[in-house]
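User: Hand in any protein.

Assistant:
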Amino acid sequence: MGIEVQKLDGEFEGVQIRKNKSVTTHDQDGKVNGFLLEINSNLDEFILEPGVQQVYMTVCNPGDKKGLHEHKHKEDNFCCVVGNCEIVLYKNGEFMTVPMGHDDYKTVKIPPGIAHGIKCVGDVPAYVVNCTYPPYDPDKPDQFDPDVGDW
């Protein structure tokens, strides 16, 4: 379908970044009334795990960071729908940032074993949607915080 997907290698092998499709929407009279943002589609090679079982939104305030952590079994798929943020990736002493938000809509697929967090880089809160598989289970948390100091 022509959707751009970047696949990372090296320390961040398995991470995929999908340029999201934005479609202008119109009312019955043809007046522009907003847009639709496609976060995922089975029509391209960037496919979420079958049976995604949890979708949630987290909000990060301007200048703040949220949760550098990794999962042993869980895949996360982040898309910033309001504001701007950086998805921070960390593995084996190496950091990488992926900017995203209202200036550059994309979805970042993060496989198990790569630590990640969110940093709000704008003047307004960043609203980030995550489609995750399997869902968070408070009785079996799958979250580990790497000891990296201030990131």
User: Anything to note?
Assistant: The mean pLDDT is 87. The domain at 5-133 is CATH 2.60.120.10 (Jelly Rolls). The longest strand covers residues 75-82.
